[in-house]
Amino acid sequence: MISNLVIFTDLDGTLLDNKTYEPGPALNTLKFCGDNNIPVIFVTAKTRAEIEPIRHELNNDSPFISENGGGLYLPVDGFKRPENFEKSGDYWCRLSKILIGDIRPALDHAAEKAEVKVQGFGRMTTAEIADLTGLDIDRAKLAGAREFDEPFVIIDETEEKLEAIRNEIIRAGYRYDSGGYLHHIMGDFNKGETVNVLITIYKRIKPTMKFIGLGDAYNDLPMLKLVDYPFLVRRPDGTADSRVDFEGLTITDGIGPLGFVEAVESAL
Questions:
Q1: DSSP reduced 3-state for 165
Q2: Distance CA 238, CA 236 (A)
């Protein structure tokens, strides 16, 4: 069973603690996965610049997905070049064609049309990103190195303002998503669509492969619906995101990394 498993996991609030950004109790589970050749694939809103140091710190050599599905990276050493992938450094890459240079003006235009004030990462200083996210300055700088997806906040947010700007984003041909306390505007992709590309690659290698998925927020829903064993991890206040609800979903008792450990052990 173990050799047939692949794990897709969100980072912040799932594998990593929401405040410390550390895996804590999940370290032993990650080591077990590494020792038993179970890929642990990060599927996150984080940038490639943020993910690579985390992979290094956690001795992770699996593929990863950045910025809510905008970038898919396969280690060259472990995979043959799939169709429509390009080489970048040590990876075969599948990248969104709509880049941050298009996304940021689209957010400004949508906000103007909706008559809503927003602030995206592109208009924040590194210090402001750090204050908003709780990241230290070095990590905040990496978080600001966006390529495909722009996180933003709505000033004096209300349900009416959220609905207005979400509608304008969609009307302009972009996608809206949310993860935790941040909103996101992006091109024509999401976590689920990019995860599905990777599932197809793994199943060509081994058709009997089974997939675990873990997340804590609405932007994880498309990914969780695709896997064999979907888990929704509880948030720091003990609640679970009520927007993520479908038959077959398991909600963990544990919060953050404890929920990750619980889910993986349950699936195993």
A1: helix
A2: 5
Tens digit of each residue's pLDDT (9 = 90 or more) over 142-199: 999 999 999 999 999 999 999 999 999 999 999 999 877 899 999 999 999 999 999 9
* Joined tokens for residue 10: 């969100």
* Secondary structure class of 229 (helix, strand, coil): strand
Q: Tens digit of pLDDT for each residue in 204-239?
A: 999 999 999 999 999 999 999 999 999 999 999 999
Q: Is 10 a catalytic residue?
A: yes
Instruction: Output phi, psi for 26, to 5 deg.
Output: -80, -10
The pTM (predicted TM-score) of the whole model is: 0.95
CATH 3.30.1360.40 applies to domain 2-96+190-267: no
100-186: CATH topology: Threonyl-tRNA Synthetase; Chain A, domain 2 (3.30.980)
Strand 210-215 and strand 71-75: the pairing is unpaired
The owner of tokens 């690579």 is 52
